[in-house]
Amino acid sequence: MVSYSTNEPIGQADGVELPLFQQIARAIENDIVDGLLAEESQAPSTNEIAAFHRINPATALKGVNELVANGVLYKKRGIGMFVTPGAREALLQRRRADFATRFLAPALAEARLLGLTDADVIALIQKDPHD
């Protein structure tokens, strides 16, 4: 599956394929974090999402409802779903907190297995990949 607004692939977390409704929620979150959906801007409708991805509208609605439950989107009755003020910063804080667990811990565990010191790891991080 690809993002509604960027056409970039989405759908995996930690190498595991996410259910479609979670892929939809993740794509909308990514658009908010990337600034493509600003706070107080209207999110795509569930029918637009469903048509774009060729999925059941109920699946799209389930993804959007997950974001409503998490305070990322809110509903304006009769108009649609909108990005909650502060949603971008809240998503960034959550993702920053998850970063160490999801990415750094496995990398550091592998570094220890390889016998790399803290200084070695820091040097690798600071190294220009184009060198």
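Second entry:
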Amino acid sequence: MSANYKAELVGVFGQPIAENPTGVMQEAGFAAAGLNWRYISFEVPPENLGSAMSALSALGMRGINLTIPHKVAVLQYLDDLSPAAKAIGAVNTVCIEEGRKTGENTDGKGFLRGVRKDAGMNPAGKLVTVLGAGGAARAIAAELLMAGVADLLVVNRTPDRGQSMVTDLREATGGPIRFLPWKGTYRVPAGRHLFVNATSIGLYPDVKAAPDIDLSEASPDMLVADAVFNPPETRLLAMARAGGLPTLDGLSMLVYQGVIAFELWTGQTPDEGVMKAALRNSLGVS
């Protein structure tokens, strides 16, 4: 039998792209699974997205990730969307089969898998607060609603954006979601089970920033999760730990959204530990 030197190709489109670490963990996952797959990071400016999407089929690529600023703009170049992607209105993963491009959003799914596997929490029936109304917040909120939370409160500085997100997701999922304007310091009340920072507050290089929130009245078992992965030790999580609250860092969401993309593309289950270790090593996290 002759050797097969053809690698299967996937990757990511974004701008900027140089600091995106996804390729590190995907390549580690492929190697651990013995797969001749390669993950390539492409710098794609917005005006070239259409051409780049057309090139996927021409090059025989198996799929692509989308990051800033392409997660919404890519919708016009797809043949189909998953239910989650339709509800969220954004795509971060595309699967290509027989030339047909199907969009999925693994961000919220990755967050949920981290909550279940790393924090040991089943979100069904829980009272949840999500800070923010951007793309990450939409993805996380949509998946939480589809997972059966009892109440999802969105807190955001910009009322129009927050209310618009709540209206969209209520219509898309029929779930129990509501909005509260964020004015001054937001005091998290007792009785909530999960608090999620889905804003970019604390993201490198603004590592000293922390959301203007007060955790002093939070229930002692409330899980505090941060979507920010760089640095994994955000000031929010440090505040929560200082108050004795359980925490979940943003690396969990980043790893699991990549794991789910791996599963969608290859049809195989990767070694999550290998992928997580590769990501943490690349970011200099012990």
